[in-house]
């Protein structure tokens, strides 16, 4: 949905020269703007010009409009009759053109927006309106396998940077009139189209109302990518835990809609934002329902274990080696003491050094080109780890702890949850080095208190856990067979309006 025309925008003149001057002033120094002046009619006595961006429009349609006008109107009026501007006005305003890609424009705000949208706009001498033909032709990436969400079983298709294409893919998977998509244009310079979708009757009305209220203020913001919306949607801007999810997979977006979620998209971004987000959902993927129940449940348990390892393993090792060595078996304790002999740093400093180098290697592997990024990460980790051990900067046990922590963070389906663990890991390490096991317990309690008070679009972040919902909790950690669920893949509510009130059925 494009923004309505500005009431202060100048109207289109009936004089061709004035319109031409306005266009030239509006798009000064735009060398890719093409203005084609031409005549039409049997005697070529009528003047007109078309304007378009040569870098946005299809080459096959640039002169199609001109050729059509020179031939179409005389066919309507007869070859012996002279074409006048009144005939053109009558033809386009009363008879029209049988094409969904044409529209009439009344002011220059519409004209400028149309040209920037990839339309060919035509002005006629003696007519105070313009015709616009949609002819956008910008190179787009073809649908391919998701890059950030690879899958073994299930659909191997991803969203692309075209908003219309992405909405079409979702509509092809959910053939229901209850699937609603609303759009608006954001930003004064980029003018990106933002769209959000939901299943009417499935999404909670109060959640949808809260979402609409929060995005009302972004109309004037320059939205480049869908992640720009997160700041307006989040309840807590400074919480390390993500309150929305992202996906590139259509099946994940469809499952989210069926679960009563709201999805948001931005033209030019291949990612889909899903909100509200709950803590349990960051451990689940739609692929869990493509395998047998026992296998998917095992995978989810591994993800939960990976979460605990990525969050607490370094701090636990620091606390045990510094304060609670009596809890370590004697043989293992002697092995640790032998490896730490000659290490000049305490366990905390040793862990900080290794974590810093690991994070550095991780970022280097992401930013480098793919063919060499993985090689640098693997070789760098091996070389630095071995060199640190031989130079007695770090012990072999610490290298193993840091490596297991990094591997565990990679096992989480959502990258933004792994980022949260990277942030929380360091305060826990300091608490463990200062107070031992008591510090870890205090840190864990503080994290749990934060999670219990955190909300996403007004919904509890620990949904189905706090407040406790046994029907939904049974499918949170373990994958319950679909035949035991009220609605597959998860138990859902359906909202109906009854006597002016929302009734849950």
TrEMBL record:
Signal sequence segment: none
Question: Cross-referenced Pfam families, in alphabetical order?
Answer: GerA
Instruction: Please give the superkingdom of this protein's source.
Output: Bacteria
Any one GO biological process: spore germination
Membrane-crossing residues?
Answer: 301-323, 343-360, 372-389, 395-416, 428-451
Q: Which family is this protein grouped under?
A: Belongs to the GerABKA family.
Know the name of this protein? Spore germination protein
Q: Which UniProt keywords apply?
A: Membrane, Transmembrane, Transmembrane helix
**Would you tell me the Gene Ontology cellular component terms?**
membrane
Native source species:
Paenibacillus agri
* Entry keyword Transmembrane: yes
């Amino acid at each position: 949905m494009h923004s309505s025309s500005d009431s202060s925008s100048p109207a289109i003149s009936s004089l061709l020269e004035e319109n031409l001057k306005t266009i030239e002033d509006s798009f000064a120094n735009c060398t890719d703007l093409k203005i084609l002046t031409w005549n039409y009619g049997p005697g070529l006595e009528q003047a007109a010009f078309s304007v378009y961006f040569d870098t946005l429009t299809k080459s096959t349609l640039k002169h199609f409009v001109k050729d059509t006008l020179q031939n179409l109107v005389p066919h309507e009026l007869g070859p012996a009759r002279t074409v006048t501007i009144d005939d053109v006005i009558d033809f386009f305003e009363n008879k029209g053109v049988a094409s969904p890609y044409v529209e009439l424009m009344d002011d220059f705000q519409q004209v400028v927006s149309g040209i920037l949208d990839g339309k060919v706009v035509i002005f006629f001498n003696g007519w105070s309106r313009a015709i616009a033909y949609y002819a956008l032709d910008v190179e787009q990436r073809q649908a391919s396998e998701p890059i950030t969400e690879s899958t073994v079983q299930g659909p191997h298709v991803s969203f692309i940077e075209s908003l219309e294409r992405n909405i079409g893919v979702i509509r092809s998977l959910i053939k229901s009139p209850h699937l609603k998509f609303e759009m608006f244009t954001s930003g004064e310079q980029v003018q990106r189209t933002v769209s959000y979708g939901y299943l009417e009757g499935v999404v909670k009305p109060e959640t949808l109302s809260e979402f609409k209220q929060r995005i009302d203020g972004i109309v004037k913001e320059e939205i480049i990518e869908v992640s720009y919306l997160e700041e307006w949607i989040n309840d807590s801007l400074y919480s390390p835990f993500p309150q929305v999810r992202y996906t590139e997979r259509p099946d994940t977006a469809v499952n989210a809609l069926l679960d009563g979620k709201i999805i948001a998209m931005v033209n030019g971004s291949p990612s889909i934002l899903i909100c509200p987000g709950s803590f349990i959902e960051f451990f689940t993927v739609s692929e869990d329902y493509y395998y047998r129940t026992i296998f998917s449940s095992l995978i989810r348990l591994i993800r939960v274990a990976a979460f605990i390892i990525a969050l607490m393993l370094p701090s636990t090792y620091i606390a045990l080696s510094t304060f609670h060595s009596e809890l370590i078996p004697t043989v293992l304790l002697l092995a640790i003491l032998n490896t730490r002999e000659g290490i000049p740093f305490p366990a905390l400093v040793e862990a900080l050094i290794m974590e810093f180098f690991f994070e550095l290697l991780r970022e280097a592997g992401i930013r480098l080109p793919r063919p060499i990024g993985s090689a640098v990460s693997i070789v760098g980790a091996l070389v630095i780890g071995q060199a640190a051990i031989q130079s007695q900067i770090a012990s072999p046990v610490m290298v193993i702890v840091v490596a297991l922590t990094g591997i565990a963070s990679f096992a989480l389906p959502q990258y933004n949850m792994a980022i949260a663990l990277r942030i929380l890991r360091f305060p826990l390490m300091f608490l463990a080095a200062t107070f031992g096991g008591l510090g870890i317990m205090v840190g864990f309690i503080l994290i749990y208190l934060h999670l219990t008070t955190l909300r996403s679009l007004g919904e509890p972040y620990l949904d189905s856990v706090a407040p406790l919902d046994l029907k939904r909790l049974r499918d949170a950690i373990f994958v319950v067979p679909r035949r035991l669920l009220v609605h597959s893949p998860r138990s859902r509510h359906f909202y109906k309006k009854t006597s002016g009130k929302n009734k849950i059925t």
